Records
---
Amino acid sequence: MKLNKFVFAILLFIFMLFSLSVFAQTYNQPYNQPYNPSYQQPAPYNQQAPNYNQPYNQQMMQQPGQYGGQMMQQPMQQPYGGGQYNPQMMQQQPQMMGGMPPLPQPITNPQAAFATGYIRVIGESEAGQRRYAALRAAKVVAQRDLLEVIQGVTVAGDTTVQNGLLVNDVIRSTVQGFLQGARECGRYYDMSQGVGYVCLEVGTKSFVTTMFQDPNARQAIFNAVPPAPVFQPQIVPPAPQVYDGLIVDTTGTNFRPALINRILNEKGEIIYDPTKIAEDILAQRGCGDYTNEIGKAKAILSERGVRNPLVVKAVGVVKFTDVKVSGDDATAIFSSNQKTNFLEGAKVVFVLK
């Protein structure tokens, strides 16, 4: 029995030695070799193993769609309010120094405002304010600037809104209420300076119609118009063509857009008097439109169904707002209006310089 146990122990020892020998031949060889820096672990199925010899994140930066690569290829997000100024435009504009976007040009001259169709101002806050306070202060400044421009709009002759209408408390509240509805055309906060910028716009057409919708303002506007005789030719020759609209080219004169612009002949007699137009027409269109090109004037009238407008050239101006035309043009306007009544519909466009 003892001999059998001894033989069994020897056999077990030989088996263990054999197993250790096999184990050493199979697994001990890599550990006996020097460290291989190019050694790569086997890649999972259908995947390419990363190259650990490249600098950190280099491979990811070269591959779009992965973390690092996507961030490097896309521009950094602009600060609050950065990028282009007008939120309605999608195209980014180039940045100015300091990351501040280019601001739109203000339009505060009344003549330019009537030609473009809107007044635009940019309010700027004091420096060193937080974003909310700076933008709020900038908007208040912009509203104040809008009021100053509106005050300089001509009513008729040499009378402005400031000295002709705002003496009335009701009209003043109407103007202030109109400015409260100004459209915000952009905003920007300069974090480095703590300065806010707010752009506000109001349409000149909407301001004119707002004033004519208010009975008090409408009557005050009419009172500012100086009296003049009405043009009435003794003989009305037939119009050579059928004209259904009127374009008055005022370039080369010192004509000034106003809430009331009349057309006179060379004797100072009234051919076109907006105070005689129906209230609903004035409240919808005002006394006419304004632009800086005859082609644009025709496009404006075509939207109102005008197919063949009469184009006349102004020969002078009375008190900046009343246009003078030649005797022949005055007769042509009168006779043409007898057929199509375009003056009663305020289908008139003044072309500005």
---
Amino acid sequence: MRYQITGKQIDVGEALQSHVKSELGEVAEKYMQRPTDAQITFSRDAHEYICEATVHLSTGLTASAKGHATEIYAAFDAAREKMDKQLRRHKRRLKDHHRDRAEPVEFEAAGLYVLASEEDDDTGETHEGAPMIVAEMETKVPTLSVGEAVMQMELSDASLLVFRNEKHGGVNVVHRREDGNVGWIDPRNSK
């Protein structure tokens, strides 16, 4: 597994890097998820250290975790525990569904736009009345089953995931509702 360990205005020493590699490698081996690479970023917010960890699995799924603590090692340990819990749940769901993806997830390129909010600007709109585009980026839309999409959303700790439904090829959305349940939007079944 390839590791990219960085610090935002923090010097990440050799001891911390070796600790991160051994602990995260142990978590990945424990659940045999065949990780390809991991990105770990340390930063500081006032008196607190923040550790953000992202592990890409060979199936195309991504697991993300974030930890906070007053010490840098404790922040990593909190993120590692969350990652361990996510990968354990993921493995349990794969066993429960008796389905293991043999081939990697297919991704399709899509445009991602960041629009200015009205608070960012006096009007937040251009002369034509359309919102002002602040940034244009590219994102990837995976082709997944609904169950895999829910797992991916939970693994990445996101509140929303846009995906292409592998059953019919249409674009679908799964999202975390305010009541804690997961919502699924399938425009194809609107009739």
---
Amino acid sequence: MSLKYTCPVCGTPLGYKGLCWKCRSGQERDTVLHWSPEQVKEKQDGLVRNIRRLADMEDPELTDFWKLLGYRDAITPRIQRAALAAEVYYPCELYYHAPEDVRDGLIHVLLSAENSSEASELMCCLAMQGDDRALETLLELEKHPRPWRKNLYVDPSIYAQCGGWTFDKEGQRMQLNFDTCYPMVKGEPGEGSPIRMGQMREDTCPHCGGRMVDILVLDGRDERLRFLGLDGILTAACCPNCVGFLDGPAFSRFTLDGGVEVFPSRTFDGTGKMDCYVRPEEYKALTENRFILGKSSVPLFYGAACEDVNTIGGFANWVQDWEYTACPHCGKPMKYLAQIQWDTLMDGTEGTLYVEFCPDCHVVSMQHQQT
């Protein structure tokens, strides 16, 4: 069936008249970025007045929260104190870097918790607050579990990961995300950039026969990417067809001169075969995309606030739960690097690719999530 309409902005074929969802989302984001100080305060005041509606995932409060956090970095201690007073613990991002009095309130409630559901929510909130006292509390709960621990699947150190950090058995902190975030935006044809997504490779996948791609190539020597601590080029290579079917991440190792080694898939174990579902026109769209690195940094939750942006650094928009991969070489948790929304590169595809890396071993993890 042919589609009758097209998006007036990007030309995407549609079955209805109006903007496609990606262009509509982009326009809504642009509106928020141009809110006046008075409009921002109005939204903040609305959250404080109706903070209980946020816990119930009611709009406009839930949508306003993510706009304030993701696009304006405007969740204030006043909002955090109102949430604590009203016993609102969702979304946990409410408490990102909350002040000490709010942290102490969260710790008090957590240590008084009697059921696993409440304790789970509160550990996520404390992880988002994330200071040394929060670490000490989660470490104590890991060493001396409360009765509710037996009803949870993972330890407090895993809950800490939702705040972008974790700790080892000695209580040493390990940072898992970066405190800088850049968007990947559409550039002009031929425009230079220190990042490239979807670069075709010569080799083919041993499992499906499809072409391998360098799904992300970035030059850490660019001034904007200095925060990554990479004095050279990182290349992440995978099969765009098979990476979505793996029971776990795909891995590759990079050298700072631009080299890359693809690890054999553990899931297929070198014997499994499958069809390649990526069509030639989709490979063309993937490898001819015009995404470049944005000129300016954005708030850390910019990529977590919506489903249509690709980002370097900051926090991810996890489709399911956060998942930091253990480096297959040294065993340490890897650092979150980037998220790539498949449907921004190939129409009709689903899900998100999360890219992590081990700075010590130069190993990259690529894992796919979708609903």
---
Amino acid sequence: MNLIWLLLRASRVNVAIAVLTGLISGGCSARLIALINSAVNNQSTDNLLWYFVGLALIVLFASVI
């Protein structure tokens, strides 16, 4: 717990950016798994390629930042 307070005192902006990108990356990863699951089960595959590419790029960029 002391480490969290130390990080917050040192740079609140960096901690906020890390939390935000973690949430975005985690949410997009979960949606990507759900998208793959729906494709495997042959449920509405309209624009599947574009959704996959978009989510994959968001996950990639969020994990790099």
